[in-house]
Amino acid sequence: MIQKPAHHTKRGFRNPWPGFEEKGFLDLLAWMLFDHRKSYIDNGRFCGEIGTVGNDGAFLRSNDSGFTVTWAGHSTILVQLGGVNILADPVWGERVPPLSCAVPRRHGAAVPAFRDLPRIDAVVITHNHYDHLDRGTIERLGDSPQYFVPLGVGRLMRSFGVSHVIEMDWWQSCRFHELEFVCTPTQHFSGRGLFDRNRTLWCSWLVRGDSGSFYTAGDTGYFPGFREIGERYGPIDAACIPIGAYLPRWFMQPVHVDPDEAVRAFLDLRAKYFIPIHFGTFRLADDPLWLPPEELRKALECRHVPPERTRILQKGETWVVENPVKKPVGIEMRGIKR
Questions:
Q1: What is the pTM of this model?
Q2: Has residue 66 got a pLDDT over 70?
Q3: Are β-strands 76-81 and 84-88 bridged in parallel, bridged antiparallel, or unpaired?
Q4: What is the spatial distance between Cα 204 and Cα 219, in angstroms, rounded to a whole number?
Q5: CA distance 39 to 193
Q6: What does the buried/exposed string (b/e) look like for 287-306 if buried means 16 or more CB atoms within 10 Å of the residue's CB?
Q7: Torsion-angle region of residue 244: left (phi > 0), alpha (psi -120 to 50) or beta?
Q8: First-to-last CA distance in the chain?
């Protein structure tokens, strides 16, 4: 008899690590009624703290071999690696349903504009939350890219009109255009409504090839899996790790790292460069939008991470990855669902 992985359940998935404490509806209600209502003081400061740069996409469209990372805001990143254009958690929408009335409109437009994007070859989705999986954006991308999603999300993607979908479990990998796409663990949860919590899987993604590697965590709490990913696949060139939506800690800690935990994750991953994401765009928790990068700088200094190893990008900024690790990659298809 084949034993199911520890993160599988009869009805979906779970976080299997010792000490994980799942927060329920009553905890959510307590946060919304007592903490969240008091959290909007001093939030106006962020306008001068988080910048946007113009990016008409011309360089991105002409680049056919360079390793670049472009931050479009929140968790949306465009990575060019080995001649392949990859979007992670693409969201070009102005709001994130289903609580559009409760979450303010995004701060600043997504840059580059959607019309200025280069050809998109692949899309990776970390989980089905609305701020990481936006129906309008997927419908605009259409059925041309190859989509990589965690288990269970394929059905939703197909309802959005796309058919080139590969579903993967943690530690599964497959080859696409000479790159290896690896579905790696995170400590988070899933759900788009009241009755589908944890029915689909959540994950992070590692993509690597002969010319470099990048990792995106999407959303996650701090957990032992970071160290295991680093041991299996390090060194990693660029690690995109969330730093926002972490307050109050009593509620957010199991599923959202704070800036100091993000630095710990970066070190565990054995990554060369740290690119913070999941901040400065949507006000999803009690931390004001200006706070995460400020706290990140303190954490980096406290943990003695050299400044040159961190790239705090402005929205729309493209960074050409310098001197990527040259590590030959043997790639094979392993246990995928399509």
A1: 0.91
A2: yes
A3: antiparallel
A4: 8
A5: 25
A6: bbbbbbbebbeebbeeeebe
A7: beta
A8: 24
Structure confidence at residue 336 as a pLDDT band (50, 70, 90): very low
Q: How far apart are CA 42 and CA 279, in angstroms?
A: 16
Question: What digits encode the pLDDT tens for the residues 221-237?
Answer: 999 999 999 999 999 99
CA dist., res. 338 & res. 329, Å (int): 23
| Alpha-helical segments (H) within the chain | 25-30, 58-62, 135-141, 154-159, 225-233, 249-252, 259-268, 291-302
d(CA 57, CA 32): 40
Mean pLDDT, all residues of the chain: 89
Q: How many CB atoms lie within 10 A of CB 62?
A: 9
Contact predicate 265/241, CB 8 Å: yes
For 262-291, what is each residue's pLDDT tens digit?
999 999 999 999 999 999 999 899 999 989
Tell whether omega for the bond before 97 is within 30 degrees of 0, i.e. cis.
no
Torsion sign over Cα 150, 156, 160, 166: positive
How many whole angstroms separate alpha carbon 9 and alpha carbon 69? 36
Residue 271 CA to residue 158 CA, distance in Å, equals: 34
Contact (Cβ atoms closer than 8 angstroms) between residue 240 and residue 199: no
Q: Is 160 helix (H, G, I), strand (E, B) or coil?
A: coil
